[in-house]
Amino acid sequence: MRMYDIITKKKRGEHLNEEEIRFWIDGCTNGTIPDYQISALMMAICFQGMDRGETLNLTLAMRDSGKVLDLSRIQGVKVDKHSTGGVGDKTSLVLAPMVAALGIPVAKMSGRGLGYTGGTIDKLECFPGFSTALPVEKFYQNVNRIKMAIMGQSENLAPADKKLYALRDVTATVDQLSLIASSIMSKKLAANADAIVLDVKTGNGAFMKTEEDAIALAEEMVWIGNSAGKQTSAVITDMDQPLGYAVGNSLEVKEAILALNGFGPDDLMEVVYALGIEMVLSADMAKTDDDAKALLVQTIQTKTALDKFAEFAEAQGGDQRMVYQPERLPVGKIQLQVQNTQEGYVSRIMAEEIGLASLILGGGRITKESEIDLSVGILLHKKRGDQVHPGDVLATVYANDMEKAKEAYGKVVCAYQIQNQPVQHIPVIKRVIR
Ligand code: URA
Fold first, then answer.
1. What is the best residue among 45, 112, 165 to mutate for testing ligand 1's pocket, by most ligand atoms within 8 Å of CB?
2. Which pLDDT belongs to residue 65?
3. C-alpha to C-alpha distance for 137 and 141, rounded to whole angstroms
4. All domains in the chain, ordered by first residue
5. Is the pTM of this model over 0.90?
6. Does the structure show a pLDDT above 90 at 108?
């Protein structure tokens, strides 16, 4: 078999069979196919597309390019949750202790990744002493004992995807639906939970800018997951403004703790409950959406989710006092208030601009080597639909460097759009796909 012929076939819009896709991915993993041929094929896929059968075969080949985790030593139905990424997305910090408090095992392997703020691992490092460098044995023990553990991604999961993604990034081939769906799902299938719940974000601060694209991606991923034998569902959620009020690592942890105390912002809690319902149903702990939600609500009302979060932080070496005294979490020394100048209603908060402001402050990573400042970020005081008057504070910028603070301030000002008329409510949960 020759890679040249495979590229030619796809260039002509022909179907690639399983053997051809495996040949491509195996060659990619063991380095026998050069980058230029891999890239040429991906560009042909961008123009000609792939059908669902090809996309499934690509996903499975990438899953099998590295280690597939064996979670059989963890008792119970393992449910994995994945978000396509958004601004102010602290959903996992709230949801994981809630479902763990219900006895559903949360065994999470996470990388640090790049982004506007840190990932879940970075955020958890706001707790002094917290470590995700757990030996595998301890990881399994913790999940079985307290139902929740998170570990830095030490295993070699889906290495072919790593290679393809790096090439897509520099050859303008990231935004192809089958390539995105197979990339995400190959890693989820290698992580090998029994069920997968996907949070597919849509809007200005999301990977998928339109609802239509987000639905198409979600449908493709749900189909792949189910075809690979994992019960999979997806919730399409709004990312046309940041989720909740806090953007930035320690600010988001504080907001998550507030949520676990019963004071979570409405939009954040809507997303938490929508995803939580899918997780509880997948774990067979309830038969209806209402029953699943009632179980989740109880974990907040009885503070069992809050206590679970503290137990989890301590089990991984963190200072659990912060969970009960979040005022101990680090905050930037410089605080600039962004004042409103217009009469009207907030019609939009461009999530992407707020994310960039966080990145400028040092709250996220530009390269893998970047150091994150956990104490910086933006706290919004007004959200979409709020009435505002001149002089109102729209947001506070938390920083440790005045130059960066001023630059971020400018981004926050640009992010807010004010209109004269009251603003129509936009639902946070767009659709659930099962
Ligand atoms: N996230 C991924 O893991 N892969 C993609 O292709 C896009 C987003």
1. 165
2. 96
3. 6
4. 3-49 (1.20.970.10), 79-324 (3.40.1030.10), 330-419 (3.90.1170.30)
5. yes
6. no
